[in-house]
Design brief:
The complex is a heterodimer of chains A (about 350) and B (about 240). Chain A has about 350 residues and is mainly alpha-helical. Helix content of chain A is about 75%, strand content about 5%. Chain A has twelve helices and four strands; from the N terminus they run H-H-H-H-H-H-E-E-E-H-H-H-E-H-H-H. The radius of gyration of chain A is 21 Å and the shape is globular. Chain B is globular and about 45 Å long. With about 240 residues, chain B is α/β, with parallel strands linked by helices. Chain B has a six-stranded mixed sheet, with helices on both faces. Chain B has a four-stranded antiparallel sheet with strand order 2-1-4-5, with helices on one face. Chain B has two domains: about 170 residues, Rossmann fold (3-Layer(aba) Sandwich); about 70 residues, no CATH class. The model of chain B has no long low-confidence stretch (mean pLDDT about 90). Classes of the chains: A mainly alpha (about 350), B alpha/beta (about 240). Chains A and B meet through helix 8 of A and helix 2, helix 3, helix 4 and helix 5 of B. Chain A: Its main location: membrane. Chain A: Belongs to the binding-protein-dependent transport system permease family. LivHM subfamily. Chain A: It is a multi-pass membrane protein.
């Protein structure tokens, strides 16, 4: 960027150095991840077990992040609570898995290129369908209930139920079992531990997506508008930007990402049901809340925390696994009632 | 005289159940600074917000440079060349000063010439160009808010209490910047409680009372007529 401060005055005020305490408070959410991983290592004791659990926790976290990222921006931009988000996860999974089933020759071949090609085709189809569905959902259901939270909840839960039932109509009432493409089935030896190949792939995809999203939010004008809109939508409009259009775009992108998350989650579990999206929404909401409403970075850290904790606890004390995430949410909200990295001030 | 840059005809605006504006009529001459004065709560901010469309006028007409903008969406009004500085400054605090300015230049990149002009008027913005706007002091935020309005060629500026709560030294920086804008022939509708600033900057004055405009005239006339001031504004005459 060529923007330099030629016109700067001669005096050069400096920022007062932050005290160690302030610095720690600022970066604390980012430190939680390594701290949790280290505590996990200490309690689990053996390196290969810990590594396997960590990779699977990160994989799970990445997938939850993919599903949650759109939801947190939708809430931040327009203060819209969308319980119907889970429907896009389910629809994405069903569309994606159907495409994979249709490409049986590609998924059955022992060729990484063909396998990836099939998964890519499935992902594109799923994202196209859920993106389009999101567009219709926003237009028909969400638009009439702006600014009314209770009605948003009722209407979007209604939409969720209708879409779930439509899945039953199209794909039948039973769950669908599937097998992953040939090359994504096995395990990879990685730093002395056997790790499922697919989980590594999920981690890579999630990471790439997070970095790409951050780039868009930080480096492009659309990204600036979204970040500014989360803080003060009225002012963004007063500067001449049509926030509504940006919001619809975000809603569509968020729905498409939920669809992608659905495909990834379906391949991970190797079974899909119409209710899978609804089940995932509990974790997705936990992540959005502890991350801080409207914050993509917060959702990212939150999702990884949830994934890691769930996997560690399931190994160490299986009975506690069910409550671990709610426990995490309680602890974080007691520490920071607005979430770890809040962007939207409490309204 | 040419057509007014802004003309309000019988604007009535409600906020929720409250009737705030009850028929505001105003004609703002082009290329002048019009001061919108009056006690707290008489509807000055609501008038500005009704023009930009943040609150919708229930009845009446708003003409911006001859065009009816009463029902136009806010972004379209802004794109017609209206710079708005809200009372709360509307700073995007998680964005840097630079990013705030990038957004303010909606139709293209901020021109180096404008940037230099802004830096000359508000040197701290150059110093903190890459810093998050949330870390600026109150006065610096106000500078940024006005700088954003200056990021592009505007036909009209709406500026709501730019000196509210600021230290005297910063008030004079602000006044100097506004005087510079005025010298370039900008049309400004300015809400200002600081009568000294109002007297120094204003060409015309419009005084509000109870949701309508009760007096309009030359600022000079109001400034020299202590009785009028005390009747319209409740000023303790020589207090300013």
């Amino acid at each position: 960027m060529s923007v330099q401060s030629e016109g700067a005055p001669a005096h050069r005020p400096t920022f007062a150095a932050l005290s160690a305490r302030d610095k720690l408070a600022k970066s604390a959410p980012f430190l939680l991840l390594p701290v949790l991983a280290l505590v996990g290592l200490a309690l689990i004791g053996t390196w290969p077990t810990w590594l396997t659990l960590t990779v699977s926790g990160l994989a799970m976290g990445m997938m939850i992040f993919v599903m949650a990222s759109g939801l947190t921006l939708v809430f931040g931009l327009m203060d819209v609570i969308n319980f119907g988000h889970g429907a896009f996860i389910s629809v994405g999974a069903f569309v994606g898995i159907s495409v994979l089933a249709g490409l049986g020759d590609w998924t059955g071949a022992a060729s990484l290129a063909l396998n990836i090609g099939a998964v890519l085709a499935a992902v594109i189809a799923a994202m196209a369908v859920t993106g389009a569905l999101g567009w219709g959902f926003e237009r028909v259901l969400v638009r009439p209930v702006y600014g009314a939270h209770l009605r948003q909840i009722l209407v979007t839960v209604g939409g969720l139920i209708v879409i779930e039932q439509m899945i039953h109509v199209v794909w039948g009432p039973d769950e669908i079992f599937l097998t992953r493409p040939e090359m994504l089935k096995g395990v990879t030896l990685f730093a002395g531990a056997a790790v499922e190949t697919y989980r590594l792939l999920a981690v890579v995809v999630g990471l790439v997506l997070f970095v790409a999203m951050r780039m868009v939010l930080r480096r492009t004008k659309i990204g600036l508008i979204v970040r500014a809109g989360v803080q003060n939508g009225e002012m963004v409009e007063a500067l001449g930007y049509r926030l509504r259009l940006v919001f619809v775009g975000t809603f569509v992108a968020g729905s498409a990402l939920a669809g992608l998350g659905g495909v990834m989650w379906g391949l991970y579990q190797e079974v899909i049901t119409a209710g899978m999206g609804e089940e995932m929404m509990i974790l997705v909401f936990v992540v959005v809340i502890i991350g801080g409403l409207g914050s993509v970075e917060g959702a990212f850290i939150g999702a990884l925390l949830v994934g890691l904790l769930q996997n560690y606890v399931a190994f160490l004390a299986p009975k506690l696994a069910l409550v671990s995430n709610i426990g995490l949410m309680t602890a974080i909200l007691m520490w920071r009632p607005e979430g770890m990295l809040p962007v939207v001030r409490a309204k | 005289m040419s057509e007014p840059i802004l003309k309000l005809e019988g604007i009535e605006t409600d906020i929720g159940r409250y009737h705030i504006l009850s028929g505001v009529d105003l004609e703002m001459p082009r290329g002048q600074v019009t001061m919108l004065l009056g006690r707290n709560g008489v509807g000055k901010t609501t008038t500005l917000r009704s023009v930009i469309g943040h609150w919708r006028a229930k009845s009446g007409r708003i003409l911006f440079d001859g065009q009816d903008i009463t029902r136009m969406p806010t972004p379209a009004i802004a794109r017609m060349g209206l710079g708005f500085v809200p009372e709360d400054m509307g700073i995007f605090s998680d964005l840097t000063v630079e990013e705030n300015m990038t957004l303010a230049a909606a139709s293209g990149p901020l021109s180096p010439k404008r940037r230099d002009r802004i830096f000359a008027a508000f040197p701290p913005l150059a110093t903190f160009w890459r810093a998050p706007a949330g870390t600026l002091s109150g006065g610096q935020k106000q500078m940024l808010s006005i700088a954003r309005a200056m990021a592009e060629e505007r036909r009209l500026y709406l500026i709501d209490e730019p000196t509210k709560g600021l230290a005297p030294a910063i008030v004079s920086t602000m006044a100097a910047a506004l005087r510079e804008l005025k010298r370039e022939g900008a049309s400004i509708l300015l809400v200002e409680q600081n009568f000294a600033v109002a007297r120094a900057l204003g060409d015309r004055a419009a005084v509000m009372e109870g949701g309508r405009i009760v007096w309009t005239g030359a600022m000079a006339e109001l400034a020299t007529d202590a009785k009028l001031q005390s009747r319209l504004l409740g000023l303790s005459v020589e207090g300013v």
